[in-house]
Amino acid sequence: MKLLVTGGAGYIGSAVVRQLVEAGDRVVVFDDLSQGHRAAVHPDATLFHGRLEDRDAIDRVLAEHRPEGILHFASQTLVGESMEKPFLHLGANVRNGLNLLESAVDHGVRRFILSSTANLFGLPERIPIDEETRIDPGSPYGESKFILERILRWMDDRFGLRYAALRYFNAAGAVSPELGEDHDPETHLIPIVLQCALGQREKVTIYGDDYDTSDGTCVRDYVHVADLADAHVRALRALDRGSRTYNLGNGRGFSVRQVIETCRAVTGHAIPAEVGPRRPGDPAVLVASSERIRAELGWAPRYGELRQIVESAWAWHSAHPHGYADRGPAAAPS
Ligand code: UFG
Questions:
Q1: Which of 28, 31, 233, 259 could form a cystine bridge with 9, CB 3.0-4.6 A?
Q2: Do 137 and 267 contact (CB within 8 A), yes or no?
Q3: How far apart are CA 163 and CA 235, in angstroms?
Q4: Region for 243 from its dihedrals, namely left if φ exceeds 0, alpha if ψ lies in -120 to 50, beta otherwise
Q5: CA distance 12 to 35
Q6: Which fold has domain 2-172+222-249?
Q7: For residue 185, what are the contacts with CB-CB under 8 A and spacing of at least 6?
Q8: Catalytic residues
Q9: Ligand 1: which of 89, 141, 256 to mutate, most ligand atoms within 8 Å of CB?
Q10: What is the arithmetic mean of pLDDT over 133-161?
């Protein structure tokens, strides 16, 4: 298939591009490189350096490349930041998504995959969280993704645009020692802990140890980015049978302390940790039920062990302590 991937230079987008290219799809990456990295773009993909605010740019790319499907990753993604700057997330994520969808419909695109999030469930009423769990977004970021999910229902209803909304739990790990996570600023737990192992940070602060969990620290469902990528490829191939929504996680929860312990074991470094105050908006436990995608598409995580996830992340971080700044460019811009 010919595909357009927005945010294909970012952490999850670049992992998906790699699987698509390896499966023989032809991929055009649309990215403004504000958070993504040119070096993360697969050399066999075409990079278009553009902004989703620019409807003309989207039109040009769609007219030139005529993709059969769009995978939409480009987004503001930080939950905490969205609490401080709600208009940034609600405004940019919704407006950019609408720009893209309007252009997609105008150009006859019939397949669309949306990066959605477990943040849709806010403080969930039950664990594990399946697709029937009540939606009550925990932040403007989560709300922006929910609005896009709702818009997609109408795109399907009115224009026959088949979509998959994929709600990620905690994406983690690296596809290879050459393709991993590189955010600035970094806010995610595993890279922060590994930066301590690299000596780039003195210590990790545990955001609260008085939650109602086995060791008092928050429990999350860490899902390997290569498993997420596999889910996208399966969902894309299934769209001709109808639109669909899936929660994507391992179905297993690990506490912040368990993550730090695993990082100590994998890296052999002491990794000092101290307990700080809770981070506002953090639910105690987020664990997915991914039974629906398992049953419907035969998806199953191949890297379900926390140790495997951390080992792959460590292979990337230790090979590239400064992320993509340590790597040369991989793709020429168009
Ligand atoms: N944490 C710490 N110290 C840190 C960083 C994180 O204790 O320095 C804790 C957090 O409080 C949380 C856990 O580690 O309990 C994981 O935090 P992350 O920031 O890595 O991830 P989040 O769970 O906050 O959010 C991620 C994505 C969101 C997505 C969510 C869904 O960033 O986009 O997973 O579960 F919505």
A1: 31
A2: no
A3: 9
A4: beta
A5: 12
A6: Rossmann fold (3.40.50)
A7: none
A8: 141
A9: 256
A10: 97
DSSP for 242-278 reads --EEEEES-S--EEHHHHHHHHHHHH-----EEEEPP
If you search the block for the tokens 């210590």, which residue do you land on? Answer: 203
DSSP type of residue 175: S
The residue contributing the CA closest to ligand 1 atom 26 is 170
pTM above 0.90, yes or no: yes
Q: How far apart are CA 16 and CA 8, in angstroms?
A: 8
Distance CA 27, CA 34 (A): 20
For ligand 1, is residue 139 a contact (CB within 6 Å)? no
State the distance from the centre of ligand 1 to the C-alpha of 293, rounded, in angstroms. Answer: 24
Q: Which residues pair with 244 in a beta bridge?
A: 164
At 103, which helix (H) or strand (E)? helix 94-106
**147 and 153 Cβ atoms separated by less than 8 Å:** no
What does each C-alpha distance from 21 to 5, 15, 46, 171 come to in angstroms?
11, 10, 11, 21
Q: Which residues partner with 196 through β-bridges?
A: none
Query: pLDDT (tens digit, 9 = 90+) per residue, 252-305?
Result: 999 999 999 999 999 999 999 999 999 988 999 999 999 999 999 999 999 999
How many helices (H) and strands (E) the chain has is answered by 11, 14
Question: Does pLDDT of 333 surpass 70?
Answer: no
Which atom in ligand 1 lies closest to the alpha carbon of residue 117?
36
Question: Is 137:260 a contact under the CB 8 Å cutoff?
Answer: no
Question: Residues, the chain, total?
Answer: 334
Please name the amino acid found at residue 276: G
3-state SS class at 114: strand
Q: Which two tokens mark 118?
A: 């477990």
Residues 6+ apart with CB under 8 A from 154: none
Contact 182, 319 (CB under 8 A): no
H-assigned helices in 171-302: 189-197, 225-238, 256-267, 291-297
For the stretch 48-89, pLDDT in tens is 999 999 999 999 999 999 999 999 999 999 998 999 999 988
